[in-house]
């Protein structure tokens, strides 16, 4: 069952699982790609978009060629490390399943327009819903993939994988629904008015377990197998993963590459170490508790960025004060919440934009923006440039030298 639209789009990377699944079945994906005027080398570009209708047509054609009513399910089962790299990192920064669900909801908004995932608690049930919105030709095969992919992602977050109490799909029942039942672990209702899955509401408060993940971006062998350059120094030589850039305060500082930053985040981050050192310096030199407080807020903002909730009220709660007190104490320290947020985002943006493996969409996601337009507006405000222009400039300067980086010394141009 499809929903129509004229302007809904989705990242072209949604076609990559189609190609892999067809190849695994011994089927040439060429005709499917040609039907959408696509080439294999284009499928790694997260920033390239195609219409939702075009993407759905590709999925339906692939399912037809494979003669597989559960093609979307099987494609989700074949998802690889690189498909989850940035998302997996962000999800594991969430304290609870409810928080991780909100991150997943935000990620979906960045990946495609039109159809959207939403999360609701009704009574004692937590519901994940795929809402059509202005979605374009979202085929049953692609909906199967979306719902199965959500399931695959959430199962990685707990020692005891989440189980669905209900799986309700709009699509007609396949001739043989056994694959759907096998994957979801129970009955599946077809021909429904809404695409949704649900579980006990108590899951919302369950803590996320940052256990050794099959999708951990910290595993160099997995990243290489997934397509990262095998000689990438950021994966094999930590000392080569650092670069000098101009900080928002105007000083030159050494920062870790995005790959190194992601790896640090699985253990003790460099931000955490620096914050602890700053706190100790404050106590020893008597520079004052307000500067100390500002450092605590700065560190907390860094941790909250990928979680997508770096708003002042949330940060205030994390550091144990009211929002009003947060703003007053930061003013006493000679700064403001917005200044600290912009500094953290700007610093991180420069690092991520140097990473060829981090798309502009993913950069915006890691910086805590709810959509790509928010990241674009921020770049314009900081530097007067679009994200594409800023990425081009940072890479050009990286090729020349790290001795003098001609980037704005601080955000807020």
What does this structure look like?
With 413 residues, the protein is α+β, with helices and mostly antiparallel strands. It has two domains: 9-205, H-NOX domain (Alpha-Beta Complex), CATH 3.90.1520; 220-400, Arc Repressor Mutant, subunit A, CATH 1.10.10.60. The chain is 49% helix and 9% strand. The chain is built from 19 helices and eight strands. It has helices at 16-24, 30-35, 52-66, 71-77, 81-91, 97-111, 140-154, 178-184, 220-225, 233-236, 258-264, 270-285, 289-304, 312-319, 323-332, 337-353, 360-366, 372-383, 387-400, and strands spanning 9-11, 49-51, 116-122, 125-131, 166-168, 195-200, 242-246, 252-256. A four-stranded antiparallel beta sheet has the order 3-4-6-5, covered by helices on one side. Strands 1-2 form a two-stranded antiparallel ribbon. The chain has a two-stranded antiparallel sheet with strand order 7-8.
